[in-house]
Amino acid sequence: MFDETIPIKATKDIVIVRQKGRELAILYSFSKAEQTRFATALSELTRNVLTYAESGTCSFLVKSANRKSIIIARIVDHGPGISDIKLALQDGYSGGSGLGLGLPGAKRLVHSFDIESSPGYTQIDISISRTIR
Amino acid sequence: MNIIPILQLQSNLIASIQTELTDEQALAFQSELLEKNSALNTKGIIIDVSMLDVIDSYMAKVLTDLAKMIKLQGSKAVLSGVQPAVASTLVDMGMKLNSIETFLSLDSAFLYLTKEQSGKTKK
């Protein structure tokens, strides 16, 4: 089960979400590089929510089994949705006034990136994983 | 309101970003730095980001825009202390910080600026 949900309503929530992500990454002994990549990906996706959907939520789930730790972040919004996911994941593509690095940039920073979108509902799951030695 | 202290050292301004900034704080910092640069007639500006754990695309844009604006004012802004993890994240994301010169440390940035300034004829 995903733990408490962090609302994404204002730009200060971008900082709250990425700090929470970093805290979890530190707690589960991810490297400094992984912490930073995860926090940055969360920052990009949370900002997307504010830009395209105005508000949304982020929740976290940690799985620890078979000597593996996985942190999953689920970002949900009820905005217009992404009509062409393939196009939105292409480098340089931007639907808004951004830098065109949002989705593809964030995707490159994490281990998995799953996206589901229809008008009124977009859900993005990103995760980082680590083998415990 | 800008929350980052901006200090003057000889003809340079030094701003060390010690905490994560919200978008509004980043913009407030940008505008105060431009105001101070103009009011104090400084030649160089060092923005130290060694305490900054995350530079996302927004912050990168604020910093590169700032460098361009400072250049329009006739001064020069440089960046110092980009953390190794931040540097690799920026590259992996495909982010370019082309319009701003960067230095490993505050010390080397300051040395560079003072050398450059002493080599130039005074305006």
* Low-pLDDT residue intervals, each spanning 5 or more residues of chain B: none
CATH superfamily of the domain at 7-82 and 98-103 in chain B: STAS domain
The H/E string of chain B reads EEHEHEHEH
In CATH, the topology of chain A is named Heat Shock Protein 90
Instruction: Estimate the mean pLDDT confidence of chain A.
Output: 90
Contiguous helical run count of chain A: 4
Separation of the first and last Cα atoms of chain B = 32 Å
User: For this entry, what is the oligomeric state of its chains?
Assistant: heterodimer
Reported CATH architecture of the domain at 7-82 and 98-103 in chain B: 2-Layer Sandwich
Specify the CATH class of the domain at 7-82 and 98-103 in chain B: Alpha Beta
- In the sheet with the most strands of chain A, the strands line up as 1-2-3-5-4
Largest sheet of chain A: 5 strands, antiparallel
Globally, the shape of chain A reads globular
Q: Helical residue percent of chain A? A: 25-40%
Alpha-beta content class of chain A = alpha+beta
What name goes with the CATH superfamily of chain A? Histidine kinase-like ATPase, C-terminal domain
CATH domain topology of the domain at 7-82 and 98-103 in chain B: Transcription Regulator spoIIAA
Topology, number of strands of chain A = 5
Helix- and strand-based class of chain B? alpha/beta
The span between the termini of chain A is: 26 Å
Give Rg of chain B in angstroms: 14 Å
